[in-house]
Amino acid sequence: MGMPGRTADLGLSRTARLRLCGNAVVPQQAERALRLISRQLDATTPNG
To answer: Which superkingdom is the protein from (predicted)?
Structure first.
């Protein structure tokens, strides 16, 4: 089950594999959130 060479072949429990997959998403979510916050701040901050 799963993609060969990814989490399926690591010899980990199902729980550990799911945790690894979930942890891989966190940096992308944080990056997206910071970009959105930055845009909102730029839009509400007066120039000068």
So the answer is: Bacteria
